[in-house]
Each structure stands twice: as C-alpha cells, then as structure tokens.
C-alpha cells in the first residue's frame, strides 16, 4: 500500500454538488505539490487513470463511478502583494472575492456567488455578468501528470475561450497555483457589486436543490439556423459574444419541469437540472440527452453540455 493517505471505494456523490456518482476505486486529497507528484508516480506504476477533482460543482459522475484514482486537490493559500494575487488551486472563489474586496482590488467582483475553486474556474474560464476569470489571469502554474515537471503559462498561452482553456485540451496537467493582476478599487463599491451578484443568483437560481449550475453553454447566435433566430432576436445578449440564453430555448421548447427519475429541469431556471432527491448520474444524463434531442428536433439547435461528464 502507498505511504500516503489513500482511501479505497469512496463514494463520489459526497464530492459533487449534484450529489450523484458511484465509487472511486482510489481517492486521495493532496495538500502539497510534492504529494501530487508522489501520488502521480504511484498511479503511473499501477497504470491507473487519474481524475482530478476540486469542489465538484462542474462535474456529473455516473453511478458506475471511476475505476482509477480520483485526486482531489486541496492546496489552498492566498498571497497578495500590491495588485498581484497568487493563490492555490483549491482556494474558493468566494474566498478570493472576499479577500480582493477587503484589499480594495477590483477585477473578480463579478464572481460573487460563483461556487467552486480557483483551479476549476481557470480550467473552464468561468464567467458571469460579463466577467470571465481570463480577464485578470496573468500566470498559471501546472504540473504534468506525465513528466512531473512544472509548467508556467502566461494568459495568452492558456488559450482561454468561452468556458475553455488549454487545461481542457490537456487532461494530463494539474493546476497548482495562479496569479491575478488586479486594479485599485473602492471597497464599498466592490462589496456592493459582489453582493448584488450573490443576491441575483439567490433570486433566480434553484440553489435549494443539488445541481451543477448551467447544464448547457449559452448558444452562440452563429449556431442558430437563420430561419429560427427571429423568435429570439429580443433575447440576444453579449456575454461574452452574441448568444441566446439557452434557458430561453429550453423554456420555449416546453421542457421546464420535465423529469427523469429524480432529475428535473428546474422550474425556477430552465438551464438548470436539479436533483429532487435520489437522482442518479444516469437520470441526469438521460435528461440531458432528452433536452438536446427535443431542442434539436424543434429548432435545429445543437446544445453543448457545460459540466464535465465522468463515466458515461
Ligand atoms: C449553483 C451553481 C452556479 C454556477 N454558476 C456558474 C457561472 O455563473 N459561471 C460559470 O462559469 N460556472 C458556473 N458554475 C459551474 C462551476 O461553479 C464552475 O465551473 C467552477 O469554476 C468549477 O469549480 P470546481 O472547483 O467545482 O471544479 P470541479 O467541478 O471540481 O472540476 C471541474 C473541472 O476542472 C478540473 N479541475 C479541477 N481542479 C483542477 C486542477 N487543479 N487542475 C486541473 N484541472 C482541474 C476537473 O478535472 C474538472 O474537469 C456554477 C455551478 C453551480 C453549482
């Protein structure tokens, strides 16, 4: 057995905000870069696939679980010097928003109420209310799971796009820290913005039931057949480029409230699926497939799933 605190047959439902998912054959929480490296070589020797997990707010896991090693990164720290913030991957976005507001630094106040970790936000270039994490990233440090080497990338090298970064392309790197370049701001003003985002989410999103945020990305106007676009011309918003909110498309398709097993298209926000209690990963996956099929049949629009799907 390895000489680090490895667990076996751990239910992943405890580690996802959807509260679904089967067993991970091996599971470990890594608190240092050194541990990430050791655990990686151990897994390599055993030829085990690795899945990196943070707060699980953007992952849907099958009941089949994961026949490999789930490495939950728990490296947390925040250092702020002048207008540069450096933080560990597991630091929550909530903590980063609070600390930057306190230090009167502007740049991530749009992320008020955004669940999940710093690394999760970087990997998916999380964004909301016109802001994206890429707007402030100056540098990201990762470790290759293949060579164990550290790699530093600047903003351009991170290849950020809409809910995208190079870390989505390279499944074999773990983000271990990153830096943000921020601007001077006013504490009260920043607090007001962050709080208004938190309140907006509280009012409009089904936060009382387990979910993983938006199930589909918003739909780029360019992906909508020209004979369909007219019906949504008043709904087009620029965030970060012209899109039709997928919530509107799903609602218009009459899918709000649709249930499969314990999973339901939220009646509060139609681009959320909620776990009514006892949903399985497969219920959610089947509901996703159903929504995609109905929307495609009705409007010729191809919806793109936002969370990471594991084991389907
Ligand atoms: C209620 C709710 C609202 C949400 N609202 C938004 C929103 O407005 N905008 C938005 O963009 N997202 C939103 N999300 C989705 C989610 O919060 C973000 O995607 C978040 O950044 C994911 O972070 P996490 O720590 O939970 O990542 P996880 O779900 O744990 O992981 C996500 C992906 O990142 C990878 N990963 C995790 N850590 C690392 C690491 N250290 N190195 C490399 N890869 C890693 C994982 O392998 C996985 O593929 C919402 C989710 C919920 C539940």
Task: Explain what this protein looks like in three dimensions.
- It is globular and about 55 Å long.
- Helix 2 packs antiparallel against helix 5.
- Helix content is 26%, strand content 27%.
- It folds into three domains: 67 residues, Uridine Diphospho-n-acetylenolpyruvylglucosamine Reductase, domain 2; 121 residues, Uridine Diphospho-n-acetylenolpyruvylglucosamine Reductase, domain 3, CATH 3.30.465; 104 residues, Uridine Diphospho-n-acetylenolpyruvylglucosamine Reductase, domain 1.
- It is built from eight helices and 21 strands.
- By secondary structure, the chain is an alpha+beta fold.
- The longest helix is centred in the last third of the chain and has 19 residues.
- A hairpin with a 3-residue loop joins strand 16 and strand 17.
- The strands form seven sheets. The chain has a five-stranded antiparallel β-sheet with strand order 6-7-13-11-12. Strands 1-2-5-3 form a four-stranded mixed β-sheet, with helices on one face.
- The model has no long low-confidence stretch (mean pLDDT 96).
- Bound molecules: flavin-adenine dinucleotide.
- The site of flavin-adenine dinucleotide (FAD) has 32 residues, from strand 3, helix 3, strand 9 and strand 13.
Question: What brief labels describe this structure?
Answer:
21 strands, Uridine Diphospho-n-acetylenolpyruvylglucosamine Reductase, domain 3, five-stranded antiparallel beta sheet, globular, 8 helices, Uridine Diphospho-n-acetylenolpyruvylglucosamine Reductase, domain 1, 26% helix, 3 domains, Uridine Diphospho-n-acetylenolpyruvylglucosamine Reductase, domain 2, 312 residues, alpha+beta, binds flavin-adenine dinucleotide
């Amino acid at each position: 057995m390895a000489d680090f605190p490895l667990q076996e047959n751990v239910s992943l439902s405890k580690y996802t905000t959807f509260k679904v998912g089967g067993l991970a054959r091996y599971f470990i929480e890594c608190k240092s870069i050194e541990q990430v490296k050791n655990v990686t070589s151990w897994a390599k020797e055993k030829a085990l696939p690795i899945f990196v997990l943070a707060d699980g707010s953007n992952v849907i896991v099958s009941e089949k679980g994961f026949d490999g090693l789930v490495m939950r990164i728990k490296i947390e720290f925040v250092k702020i010097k002048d207008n540069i913030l450096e933080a560990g991957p597991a630091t929550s976005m909530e903590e980063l928003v609070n600390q930057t507001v306190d230090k009167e630094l502007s740049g991530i106040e749009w992320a008020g109420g955004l669940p999940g970790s710093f690394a999760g936000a970087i990997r998916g270039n999380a964004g909301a209310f016109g802001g994206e994490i890429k707007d402030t990233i100056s540098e990201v440090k990762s470790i290759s799971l293949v060579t164990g080497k550290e790699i530093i990338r600047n903003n351009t090298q991170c290849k950020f796009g809409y809910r995208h970064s190079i870390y989505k392309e390279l499944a074999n790197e773990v983000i271990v820290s990153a830096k943000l370049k921020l601007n001077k701001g006013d504490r009260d003003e920043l607090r007001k913005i962050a709080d208004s985002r938190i309140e907006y989410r509280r009012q409009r999103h089904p936060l009382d039931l387990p979910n993983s945020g938006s199930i589909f990305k918003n739909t780029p106007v360019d992906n909508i057949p020209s004979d369909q676009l007219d019906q949504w011309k008043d709904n087009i918003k620029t965030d970060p480029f012209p899109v039709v909110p997928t919530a509107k498309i799903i609602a218009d398709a009459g899918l709000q409230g649709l249930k499969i097993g314990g999973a339901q298209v939220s009646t509060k926000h139609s681009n959320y699926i909620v776990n009514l209690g006892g949903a399985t990963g497969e219920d959610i996956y089947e509901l996703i497939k159903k929504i995609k099929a109905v929307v495609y049949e009705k409007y010729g629009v191809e919806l793109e799933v936002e969370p990471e799907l594991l084991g389907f």
